[in-house]
Amino acid sequence: MRTDNREVKNTVVSIYFILIVLGILMITVFKSLEFFADSTFIIILGLFVILVLFHSVAGYFEYNSDGAKIIILNRGLILAEYINYREKKVEIERHELLGFKIHNYLLYKSLVILYKTYNGSKVKERFNVTLLKPRKLKYVKQSLSKTVKANRKLKQG
């Protein structure tokens, strides 16, 4: 099964643009009005915090379990074609997957997978799935559950 969240890229770019334009507009308006002079810094700082939070949540997610390997990829949405930043890619054999869990926080969702490496050590990896639609997240969960269940049967048998 293959799935990703590339359709949200235009929405994310639009929100970045709106936040940056709103910040520039606030700076110019508040500097000209002396009424908000005391709270200008606080408002600009609040807008910057919102921008940083949105940047940490906005990410591209891709899941592919069609072949012999499970491939999970996370990377940034903005400038991802030009600069390879915030990329995390894991390719694991199906039989190496031990478990997974989906954490649903207030503004952030993450997928944590547990797998065994070639030398027998266990590794946990965390992926941002915040912008993945609930239907697609359900499909990823079903696919991983099926693989984990098959691995447990092989281990017992």
Overview features:
single chain; alpha+beta; 4-stranded antiparallel β-sheet; 3 helices; 7 strands
Describe how the helices and strands are arranged.
Elements: E1 2-4, H1 9-32, H2 40-57, E2 60-64, E3 69-75, E4 88-93, E5 97-104, E6 109-116, E7 122-128, H3 134-156
Helix pairs in contact: 1-2
What do these coordinates show?
The protein has 157 residues and is an alpha+beta fold. It has one domain. It is 41% helix and 28% strand. The protein is built from three helices and seven strands. It has a four-stranded antiparallel beta sheet with strand order 1-2-3-4, covered by helices on one side. It has a three-stranded antiparallel beta sheet with strand order 5-6-7, covered by helices on one side. Strand 5 (97-104) and strand 6 (109-116) form a beta hairpin. Helix 1 (9-32) packs antiparallel against helix 2 (40-57). The longest helix is centred in the first third of the chain and has 24 residues, at 9-32. The radius of gyration is 21 Å and the shape is elongated. The two termini are 26 Å apart. The model has no long low-confidence stretch (mean pLDDT 87).
